[in-house]
Specification:
Layout lengths: L1 E4 L2 E4 L2 H11 L11 H10 L7 H11 L3 H10 L11 E6 L2 H5 L2 H12 L12 E6 L11 E3 L2 E3 L4 H12 L9
Parallel strand pairs: 3-4
Antiparallel strand pairs: 1-2, 3-5, 5-6
Helix pairs in contact: 1-2, 2-3, 3-4
Length: about 180
């Protein structure tokens, strides 16, 4: 299925459909909705790390649920993006432990360094910076997630190095 919506090409390839079918198979036939979270991850990963409304509608069709059921999940969880994001998305944990250890300052520094505001993407589409809720790594605060990995005990110097490593293509985003 291919369709263009809000600058996003929707392409459910045979390989993606097979992966979706495999995920759905882990649940009882009458409980397809239970596969929603992993299916959204797979679909988002296959579509430049974001989910347009039209793409969410396709997921609803695949799972035989109402579109609102998909929208509710996508708008609740910060791990799903509703707009195009940078190739490298810096997700700073902003809850208590990280906040007490300077996470707000690290987020602000990264934004200053990249010349964007929180929630924005650099003009070249390379970086986005967002604040998220607990990432479950309180002992390593302040920290952020970048791709599949945590960047821990952040300092301005570490952020500078991470940005340089991203620009040099040294950062691997996913284990897939």
């Amino acid at each position: 299925m291919e369709k263009t919506a809000h600058k996003q090409t929707i392409n459910i390839t045979p390989a993606l459909q097979a992966r979706i079918d495999e995920l759905i198979s882990h649940y009882p036939a009458d409980k397809r909705k239970s596969a929603l979270l992993p299916v959204l991850h797979e679909v988002q990963d296959a579509h430049d790390n974001w989910l347009s409304t039209d793409l969410m509608d396709v997921v609803a069709e695949i799972l035989h649920i109402r579109p609102i059921e998909v929208y509710e999940v996508v708008t609740f969880y910060s791990m799903y993006n509703q707009k195009p994001m940078g190739k490298y998305m810096f997700e700073f944990c902003l809850t208590s432990c990280c906040g007490l250890r300077g996470a707000d300052d690290m987020l602000e520094y990264a934004c200053e360094k990249l010349q964007i505001a929180p929630g924005e993407t650099t003009a070249d589409g390379m970086f986005s910076v967002v604040g998220v809720q607990c990432l479950g790594a309180c002992g390593y605060a302040p920290m952020m997630q970048l791709g599949d990995y945590y960047q821990e005990h952040l300092t301005k110097e570490k952020i500078d190095q991470i940005i340089e490593d991203c620009k040099a293509g040294k950062i691997i985003l996913h284990d897939k």
